[in-house]
Amino acid sequence: MKIATWNVNGIRARETQLCEWLERDRPEVVCLQELKAELAQIPARCSLEEYYVYWHGRRAYSGVSLHVRKSLCDAEPQFSHPAFDMESRIVQAQWGNVVFASVYVPNGGKDYGAKLAFLNELAAWTKHRHDEGREVVLCGDINIARDDIDVHPRERKADVIGQRPEERELFSKLLGEHLVDVGRALAPDKEDLFTWWPPWRNMRQRNIGWRIDYILASPPIASRVETCTVLSDIGTSDHAPVMATVA
User: Which of 32, 77, 104, 203 has the highest CB neighbour count under 10 A?
Assistant: First the structure.
């Protein structure tokens, strides 16, 4: 099974790129962020018939979606939003004992307190799912570089939002004993593993970026992940898709 996440930075701008990528790699679960479109603005071409899909967007800002290939489950999964959802930032789908979620954590530049509150709620939600005995796959743009290794040396600044100690502490709280950062688990020492690049001075081409997009999974699922790859060749968003293959 392939699980993928991508901050498209505007689905209407990435319509063709999204469809071509899904046709090429055919992931079973797809999580998108920063749609910047309400339901009526979603291109019809993006609602591919082989997926159950839930669009959770708003005009020109934020928005997430979750796509589940119909061959993966017998019936349409239950799509919903946790109570702490704000600005169309999280959608979850449950079938069987597994909960998938597509999440877009606030950047924090406009309201840093709201970002920290959202992260605390997200950590509590994850723990609650675990306490219920469920397995979780949480995918998306967390808007935090987990550690210094997740930022190119030229971009490291301890006081910059996305790299602050209290944000990283909350990331650790989110992971706890319940989630594994599968990309880093498979490449613990890889120093050029980035998913987002500042959109200037050819930073993407020079791979001067941050790792802020993640696939996080409960240990039983994480133990079956064979690969987790940044697809830096895909699209013109300032983010690249991340895709994991689970045995």
Answer: 32
